[in-house]
C-alpha cells in the first residue's frame, strides 16, 4: 500500500479545474492504486481501462482488470472468482471528483460512471482558458520531413511526407514541445558534377547572369544523357564533383544557383499548403561527414568490402550501411550518420522523428542500429521514430501517374484541386450566395483541405488512392463534410446573435445541461480531446485525430437533431455548440485545415 500511495503522490491526480485532463490517465492512476493495494502479492498487475460500449447501462468507461488478475492467481494454483476480485478493487479505489460511481457487471467488469458536474466544469474551462493541451514533459524535438531532392521532381511521396510531417509538427507544438522542423533536402552528391558541367557548357556566362532554367528537370535529363554517352563530359563531371566537394568558389556558386532554382519551386508548394520548414540539406553535413567517417574508422566499426567501407548495425539488420564508396565518395548513409550525430549530440535533441516513405524503412532501421552501436544514440535518453507511409496510387490502382505516363507535377495537382473544388462549390450553387472573395477563400480551403485530409485520414502505413471525386464528397469522413459541419455549428451562435464574449459569460453559469442522453454523448466525446491528442503523440498516427473530429461532427448532429430547439431558451445549447466548434477548430489547426466563416 505504501508503494502505491507513493506513486499516487508523484503524479497529480487532484483535479486541475483550469483545463481538460486525460480521463484514461486519471482512471489508470486511480485503478493502479486500487489494484496495487488490493493485490500486493502481484508485481506489475495489469490495469486495463477502456471506453465503454455505447449502451449507457454499461457506464462511460470500464476497468477490465479482474479477469487477467484471476488468471494470474489461477496459474499459481489459487482459486478466485473475477467478481470477488473486482469487489476488492472497488474496496480500495480512492475517491475522485471525476468518478460518480462504479458497478460490477457480468463475470467481473467494472463499469465506471463519470460525474456530470465534473464534465460541465471541464467544458466551462474551455471558455476560460481556450482549448489547452494536456501537460507533458517538455522535450526538444527535431522532425525531418518533406526533404525533396534538388533538380529532381518533388513527387507525391514528398507531398505525403510534407503533409504528415506538418501535422505531427503542429501536434507537437500544440503540446508545447520545442520543435525544429528540418528539411533534409538532397542538395549534395555526384549528380551535381554533371549539372555543373552542363551548366558551364550551356550558359558560360551563368556567373554574371542568371541562366533561364525554370525547368530543372529537363535540364537534369539533358545532363544525364550527356553523362551516359559522352566520355569526355563524364570526366569533366567527375572533376566538377571533386572541385565542389573541396568548396572551389566558382563551383559553389554554380551549385548554389542550381539549388536556388529548385528551392523556389519547392517554396511555391509550401506557401500554398501553409507549410513551415527550415532547410538543412545534406550539404550542411559535409564536413561533419568527413569527421564521423574518421571517427567510425578509428573506432574500428568499418569493414572493407570490395573497396567499399561498410558498417553493420545489430542482429536485426541484414544489410550494412555503405559509409564510403569504392571511389572514396560519401553516401546518403554516411550523411545520415553525420546528421543523427549532429541532432542528438550537437543540437541535443531528446527526440528525432523522420517522416519518409516506407520504402526507406530498412535504411532507418540500419541508421538507428549503427547510431546505437557507435554510442551516438542512447535509447535510455533518446527517442527516435521512423514515421513511414505507403505509396499514393491513381484511380486505376497503379502508381500515380499522368495519362501519358509521366509523374505528376505537384503544382499541376494543386491547380487541379482548385479547379475541382470550384466545380463542387458551383454544383452546390455556392457561387450565387457567396461574394467572389468568399468563394475564393472557400475554394482554397476545400481544395487544399481535401488533399491534406485525404492523406491524413488514412492509416499512414497503407497505400491510398488519390481521387478528387472521393475526397470532394460531402458525406462521410471527408474534409468537405467536416468544413461544412463546422461552418454550420459556428453559425448557430451567429444566427442567434451571440458574440464570443456573451458565450463566455454564459458558460460561467452552470446552464450547460448534460442530462439528455445525446447531450451526455456529446459532452463525453468532447472530454476525450486530451486522450486523443496523447494517443496520437504516442504512436504518431494522425488518422486518430481525423476519426475523432469526424466523431465530434456526427455526435453533434445527433445532439442537434434531438435536443436543439430555437424556441426554448437555447443558451445552454449554444454554449455546447461553441465548445464543439472550439475543439474542432483545434483539431483542424493540427490537421492543417483552414475553415472559412462562410462556404
Ligand atoms: N531526400 C530523401 C528522398 O527524397 C529523403 C530524405 C529523408 N531524410 C533523411 N534524413 N534521410 O528520398
TrEMBL record:
Gene3D superfamilies, alphabetized = Arginyl tRNA synthetase N-terminal domain (3.30.1360.70), HUPs (3.40.50.620), Isoleucyl-tRNA Synthetase, Domain 1 (1.10.730.10)
Which CDD domains does the entry link to? ArgRS_core (cd00671)
Supply the EC number(s): 6.1.1.19
Q: Which UniProt keywords apply?
A: Aminoacyl-tRNA synthetase, ATP-binding, Cytoplasm, Ligase, Nucleotide-binding, Protein biosynthesis
Report the subcellular localization: Cytoplasm, Cytosol
**GO MF, any single term:** arginine-tRNA ligase activity
> GO CC terms for this protein?
aminoacyl-tRNA synthetase multienzyme complex; cytosol
Domain Arginyl tRNA synthetase N-terminal span(s) in chain numbering? 25-114
Q: Which family does it belong to?
A: Belongs to the class-I aminoacyl-tRNA synthetase family.
Tell me the protein's name: Probable arginine--tRNA ligase, cytoplasmic
